[in-house]
Amino acid sequence: MGLLLRMFALLSSGVPISRQSAICVASLAVGSLTCNLLADQPPKKIDIGNLPAEIVGEVVIPIPQEIFSSLDKLGHQNWKSHLMRKEASTDPNRSRTALVFGLVIAEGFIAVQAEDKDEVKRVGREVLMLAEKLSVGDAVKGHAGAIVDGANIGDWVSVRRELDRTRQTVINEMETNRDEALSDMVSLGGWLGGTRVLSGVLAEHYDPEASELLHQPDLVRRIQSRYLKLPQRSRSGSLFASVEKVLETLTKVMKTDGEGKVPNESVQQIYELTSDLAAQVFGK
Length: 284
Hints:
Elements: E1 8-9, E2 24-25, H1 65-69, H2 94-114, H3 117-133, H4 137-153, H5 156-177, H6 180-204, H7 217-228, H8 238-253, H9 264-282
Antiparallel strand pairs: 1-2
Helix pairs in contact: 2-3, 2-5, 2-6, 3-4, 4-5, 6-9, 7-8, 8-9
């Protein structure tokens, strides 16, 4: 019973998002996303209902390299402005640490898009620190070192690859350890980070048609359902009460108006909700 996850990115710079010719279609297949780039004229309408999605696996971390690799072709964005730049910290609550890990992986891909060497290197160090707290440090050590080395020489292709390998390694290790609660928290953290950035871009460059990308109430209900089935010990405390509350609120906010669009006010609210929750997860 994995998470049903559908993640879309329609990002550009300087012109309305709906006029862009590149649309990333996130389709889950063995825990990864596939981006289909449309080089010709954009469709007159984004048919969200016909975009592919699958139920896969026990562990899904929805920030793989494919979706961010495609952004090279979408023109300039001020990606540095979307970095949270929060120092990752840990505590005895391993569920929170897993949420942080998912967010940090997302931050790593954003930092690569921004070509921010210092931020990528920090992500590499934090990935290792968090992995050690999650008892998968040995498996991730090589990836973390490669992330830092790649950032030092500006080899962004290799950094993306190592971030994605880190994601896959964590998936494999958690499947081996049968630690479903932690793997779900990593998945939730990654989805949160991706949704924060997507809503942030749309909040800056609102476009009614592109707003359909945030029409995800069914997706959030599935995430919410999976989350509520986790052991109580894995989601106890004020932070996880906030997670539950935000998921419930998002099911109501991620709806369309009479014209089938997510209103600008809702996009702003989604960004605020996900940003505030991400800050709570980081604990800063």
